[in-house]
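Can you give me the bound-state structure? Components:
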Amino acid sequence: MMIRIEPDSDIAIYTQLTNQIIEGIAKGDIKPGDSLPSVRAFAADLGVNMHTVNKSYHELEKKGIIRIVPKSGAIINIQNGYDNELYTRLREGMKPQIAEAIVFGMSEKDIQNLVKSVVDEFKKSID
Amino acid sequence: MSISLLLCIVLILFLIIAQTVIPYLVKRTVVFGITIPEQYIRHHKLNQFKKQYSIFTLAITLVALAVYLIWGLSNNVSEEQIVVVGTFLEFGIIFISLTFYFYFHGKIKQLKRTNKWTENLKQVQVTDLSIRSQDEMLPWYGYILPMMITIGLIIYTIMNYDLLPDNIPTHWGPSGEPDAFTQKTPFTAVQMPVFLLLIQTMFLGIHIGTKKSGIKLSVTNAAASKRRQLGMRKYSSWLLFLAVLAMTILFTFFQLTTIHPNLFEGTPMSFILPFGILAIILLATVLFAITVGRSDKTTDPVIEGDVTDIDDDRYWKGGLCYFNKNDPSIFVEKRFGVGYTLNFANPLGYLIVFLPLLIILFVTLLLN
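Here's the bound-state model for the whole set.
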C-alpha cells in the first residue's frame, strides 16, 4: 500500500500517517496480522524524523489498532467488535463535523448519504 | 609505452568518460544538483545545459589527456613522474568537471526560480509499505567468509613469523614487485591483513548502513523510482561485495608471497592478479553505473494532479553534500554521480567511513 504525506499541510505528519494506516485497514489494503515497517525504515523511506513515525505508532497503539512487540515491530491487531468507549469517542469526534453540516443546511438524509458514500468508498476497495 | 603510462591512460580515460556522461545517469528529476519537477523535466534549456556540460568537459579533458600522453611518451620521463603527474591530472579532471557542474548548477537554480517551477505544485512524499520486503540486497553475513579468510591469514602469519623476511613489503609497484619496505616486528608482520580486516569492517558497515537507509520513491514516477532505488541497492551491494572479495584475494596473495617468496615463482600471477582485478572492478563499475543510471529513464511518468516530489534542495549544500538532521538515513542517493553519498548530519556515517580510514592513516604514519 502506498503512503503519501504532505509536509506543507496543516495536518501534522504523524496524524497523516495514522489516518492513512487506519484507512488502509478499512479498505483491506492492510490486514490484521500484517506488520508495519520498523520506525527507522519507515522514517528513512519518508525522509522524516523517527519521532514522527514513533508518535504515529503510539497513537495507533493507544487506539488498539496495532500492538508493538519488541523485536517484531508493529503488528495490526485482529478486532473482535467495538465497545461503548469506542462508540462514545467516535460519536464525540463526529459531532463537530455533523454540526458543521447542519449549519450549512444539510438535511438528515444528506448527512446519512454522506456517511454511506464514505463507507461505500472503503467497501468498494475490499470488493 | 610503459605499463605505468598505459595504466594511467586507461584510468584517466575511464574518469573522463564517467565525468562526461554523469548528467545522463543521475536520478531523472535532478539536473546538476537541482530538483526539477517531472512536469518541466523536458524543458529545452535543461537538455541544452546537459549537452553543453558534456561537450565542454569531454573536449577540455581529452586535450589534457593528449598532452599528457605526448609528454609521457617522450624519452626523459621516469615511471614515477608519469604516475605523479597522472594522479594530478585525475584531480584536474575532477576539478574541471566540477567547475562546469557549479556553473550549470547556478544557471539551473536561476532558471527554476524565474520560472517558478515548484510554486504551483503540491509537494508530497510517498512510500510503499511493502517496499522493504522487495529489497534484494545481499545478506550481511556474506561478509563473514572474507573476514574469516583474513583472520585465518593473520593466524597463519603469526605461526610462520620466523619465515618472514627482515624487511616486510608495504607497497607494490606496477610490475607487481614490492618497492617499499618496513622493518619486521610482530605488528608490521600482520599489518597488511589487519588493515584488510578494517577495510572489510568498513565495507560491512557501509552495507548495513545502506540497508538501513531510506528507499526514496517519487510520486510522479513511482515505478521508475522503485526500479532505480531497488536496483541501486541490489547492485551496489553486489559491487561492494565484489570489491571486498577482490581486495581479500589481492591482500592474501601479497601476504602469502611475503611469507613464501617462491610460492608463485615462475608464474605471471603477480602481474595478472592486480591488473585482472582492476579490470574486473572497472568493468563492474561501468555495468553498475549504466544499469542503475538507465533504470529510471525507460518508463514515462504518470502525473496525477499538480503534485511533485519534495524539493529537498535546501538539504543539499552546493547540490552535492546532503545535510538533513531529520532524515535517519545514513546514506542517500548521489545527486551528481551514480551511487551513494553520506548524510553528513548523521554521525553514524562518519563513524563507518572515516574511522577505519583514520585508524589506517594514523597507524601508517606513526607506527612505521
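A couple of observations. Chain B has eight helices and ten strands. The mean pLDDT of chain B is 92.
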